UniProtKB/TrEMBL annotation:
<dbReference type="InterPro" id="IPR035974">
    <property type="entry name" value="Rap/Ran-GAP_sf"/>
</dbReference>
<dbReference type="InterPro" id="IPR039930">
    <property type="entry name" value="RALGAPB"/>
</dbReference>
<dbReference type="GO" id="GO:0051056">
    <property type="term" value="P:regulation of small GTPase mediated signal transduction"/>
</dbReference>
<protein>
    <recommendedName>
        <fullName>Ral GTPase-activating protein subunit beta</fullName>
    </recommendedName>
</protein>
<dbReference type="GO" id="GO:0005096">
    <property type="term" value="F:GTPase activator activity"/>
</dbReference>
Length: 170
């Protein structure tokens, strides 16, 4: 956990999500791509130095990392190959496996696909709770912490007594 300047800890960003975008000059190189060797070298940039080399990298399996391969064609277009977990991640849009895109659209489509993969992984995580649920929980915690169990007349008496004492002392 990182610390903010005020000393408050920053909560973790959620499940660690890694998506690799790989440029291949030959389409045949995809079958021989050494993803398992590269997993030890890939970092998301938010790991702490103690965790980065051991625990976080060892938990991420090769099959869990989606890989977007980009292969340039002679026509100036680009062929996309998406490899990774089977099932829900096969049809992550806007890019799909086998799609041919132009240079103009390539950057935007790759970026949106990576964002969608990360959102799906976060939403599928057991530890993820949506912002409105976290907000409701925080409000409930504050209410329970500062709840004053008094009858209404006692509450108003105590409230105005403190204000009256402060203004008389000034």
């Amino acid at each position: 956990m990182k610390k903010l300047p005020q000393g408050r800890p920053v909560p973790p960003l959620g499940p660690e999500t890694r998506v690799s975008v790989v440029w291949v000059e030959r389409y045949d190189d995809i079958e021989n791509f050494p993803l398992s060797d590269l997993m030890a070298e890939i970092s998301t940039g938010v790991e702490t130095t103690a965790n980065s080399s051991t625990s976080l990298r060892s938990t991420t399996l090769e099959k869990e990392v989606p890989v977007i391969f980009i292969h340039p064609l002679n026509t100036g277009l680009f062929r996309i190959k998406i490899q990774g977990t089977t099932g829900k991640f096969n049809m992550v849009i806007p890019l799909v496996d086998g799609m041919i895109v132009s240079r103009r659209a390539l950057g935007f489509l790759v970026r949106q696909t990576v964002i969608n993969i990360c959102r799906r992984k976060r939403l599928e995580s057991d530890s993820y709770s949506p912002p409105h649920v976290r907000r409701k929980q925080k409000i409930t915690d504050i209410v329970n912490k500062y709840r004053n169990k008094q009858l209404e007349p006692e509450f108003y008496t105590a409230l105005f007594q403190e204000v009256g004492l402060k203004s008389c002392n000034s």
